[in-house]
Design brief:
The complex is a heterodimer.
Chain A: H1 11-31, H2 33-57, H3 62-66, H4 70-97, H5 101-104, H6 111-141, H7 150-177, H8 184-187, H9 207-213, H10 217-231, H11 236-267
Helix pairs in contact in A: 1-6, 2-4, 2-6, 4-6, 4-7, 4-10, 7-10, 7-11, 10-11
Chain B: E1 6-15, E2 18-28, E3 33-37, H1 44-52, E4 59-64, E5 67-68, H2 69-76, E6 80-83, H3 95-105, H4 111-121, H5 137-149, E7 155-159, H6 167-184, E8 187-192, H7 195-201, E9 204-209, E10 212-217, H8 219-226, H9 231-239
Parallel strand pairs in B: 3-8, 3-9, 6-7, 7-8
Antiparallel strand pairs in B: 1-2, 1-4, 4-5, 9-10
Chain lengths: ~280, ~260
């Protein structure tokens, strides 16, 4: 006689199922050296590249000389956004690549719980990848992003939430249109990079594009980052904009994922995963 | 008389202009093993997918254990499980890791004991710590079956449970399913192309052709009605639309 938890609804069973799926991806990560290497490889390469650019430019640019860490901070924080989006989309695509969705969705797992496990894994992957690069930057360029203190936590949380939102949207699109759309996972986020002001102030953009930038949580975060590094002030107003926008973004991300999931159930894509 | 475990009424599924399942109705009695038979594209997998909620019907209703699956499937899913050759398990994970993840999804409390019991029952202990992707087709089938039995389901849906197995392994799996049903009293609904499997395991047969339910009955009754010696010949008669010796609607055996 087997013993099964009788309660399948409510917070505790829901958390148990989310934990089960997170465990599935930790097993996967643990078994695959290339996957772990991939997590830290690009953030580190980017950091090294921009670190040397900083070393060169700091003697040739009065703007950069005022805050030499601005480019490296931009690189590392941009990678938080990129890795968190990729973390959600790639983890979801692992389920599609392994043709496992059919088994998952005849279990008591809810789509919302799958989405929660995706963002949990994204957090773990981002911490490993970007955290590793940030630590390497300390001995290599005598630069510690952690010296930003508490504002760094606010920037990190806002960027990771924005990444989750886009990741959930991309996952929904891949579920709907098949693995032929998987390149979306790699390219989608770059559409917002030029207008997020990662490496330059938003004021650099044409006026009409500044209005578009104002609708992105990321542009407020990077403006806030420059305020900390150049003016040594923490802009609460920018943080508030980013938080409000992220509430909207995350809700839209979850809703779009659930809507695409429903379409997949209508079209039979949970069982026949492919291009 | 016990109420049916599965009750399907006027089920339809259209994919744009393609009609995959067309106005199908049937019940599945408790503790029975029922076969969904039909050629390729007859609508078996589509019907099973709708029963599980993986696919939403265009119209019609599905009730399992008296619960409306279209409105309340999460009340039913903990009591159901399934296996299919069209759905895989993560290949890099070991068999034990896969079974652990699914045990937790189903809320099994003593995961290790459950895996040990299934490992003994299905003879998978030898490769419990090997990656699932490195197993042979027969070994994979047994692992997927172990996953399908983790929660000791009251309703087990099997899509071609012995597809791609050698005769010895297929025979072993059939024996195991027979013994499992007798021991637990579970209800089994299986889609199959293997007629000897159907004759051996099933109490009831539902025949589909081009998405429609074209015949139904106990294997013995179908043999009599078609004047055939085995289910293989009955299957071919139905697939090729040959006439019945006794028309479907006039068979007293069907008035149940």
């Amino acid at each position: 006689m087997i013993v099964i938890a009788h309660d399948h609804t409510g917070v505790v069973p829901s958390l148990r199922r989310i934990r089960a799926l997170v465990l599935r991806h930790i097993y996967l990560l643990r078994s695959s050296g290339p996957r772990i290497l991939e997590l830290v490889y690009w953030p580190t390469v980017q950091m090294v590249l921009w670190g040397f650019i900083t070393v060169f430019l700091v003697n040739h640019s009065t703007w950069l000389a005022q805050a030499s860490g601005v480019l490296l901070s931009g690189v590392l924080l941009w990678d938080v956004l990129f890795r968190s989006q990729l973390g959600v989309s790639l983890v979801f695509m692992e389920e599609m690549w392994s043709r496992n969705l059919g088994h998952l969705f005849v279990s008591p797992l809810r789509p919302f719980e799958l989405a929660c496990s995706l963002i949990t894994m994204s957090l773990i992957r981002t911490l490993i990848g970007v955290g590793g690069a940030a630590l390497i930057a300390i001995p290599l360029f005598h630069f510690s992003i952690f010296s930003m203190g508490l504002p760094l936590l606010a920037f990190f949380l806002n960027l990771i939430v924005m990444g989750w939102s886009i990741g959930l949207l991309v996952s929904g699109i891949v579920l709907r249109y098949g693995l032929g759309a998987e390149s979306m996972a790699w390219i989608a986020i770059f559409a917002v990079q030029p207008i997020s002001g990662v490496y330059y102030p938003i004021a650099t953009l044409p006026t009409w594009l500044q209005y578009v930038a104002a609708m992105l949580p990321s542009s407020h975060v990077f403006e806030g980052m420059r305020a900390v590094l150049f003016d040594h002030t923490f802009r609460g107003d920018l943080l508030l904009y980013a938080v409000v926008l992220n509430v909207i973004y995350l809700s839209a991300g979850f809703l779009s994922f659930l809507a695409f999931f429903k379409v997949a159930r209508v079209r039979g894509q949970l069982l026949h995963v492919g291009e | 008389m016990l109420p049916p475990v599965v009750s399907v009424s006027r089920l339809r599924k259209h994919f744009d202009s393609v009609i995959a399942v067309d106005d199908v109705s049937f019940d599945v009695a408790p503790r029975s093993t029922t076969a969904l038979l039909g050629g390729n594209g007859a609508g078996k997998t589509t019907t099973l997918s709708m029963l599980l909620g993986l696919l939403l019907p265009t119209s019609g209703s599905i009730s399992i254990f008296g619960v409306d699956m279209l409105r309340d499937r999460y009340r039913v899913l903990p009591r159901v499980n399934f296996s299919s050759p069209y759905v895989d398990l993560p290949r890099r994970l070991t068999v034990r890791e896969n079974l652990t993840v699914y045990s937790r999804l189903y809320g099994i409390i003593d995961v290790r004991a459950r895996i040990d019991a299934l490992s003994e029952e299905l003879h998978i202990g030898r490769f419990l710590d090997r990656p699932y992707g490195q197993l042979s087709a027969g070994e994979k089938t047994r692992v997927v079956l172990a996953k399908a039995l983790l929660n000791e389901p009251e309703l087990l849906l099997l899509d071609e449970p012995t597809a791609s197995l050698d005769p010895d392994t297929a025979d072993y799996v059939r024996g195991m399913l027979e013994a499992y049903r007798i021991r637990t009293g579970t209800t089994i609904l299986l889609a199959s192309h293997n007629m000897s499997e159907v004759e051996r395991l099933c109490d009831d047969v539902i025949m589909l052709r081009a998405g429609k339910l074209v015949d139904r009955g106990k294997p013995g009754a179908l043999l009599t009605r078609y004047g055939r010696k085995n289910m293989e010949e009955v299957f071919i008669d139905i697939a090729r639309e040959r006439r019945l010796e006794i028309p479907f609607d006039h068979d007293p055996a069907l008035k149940r």
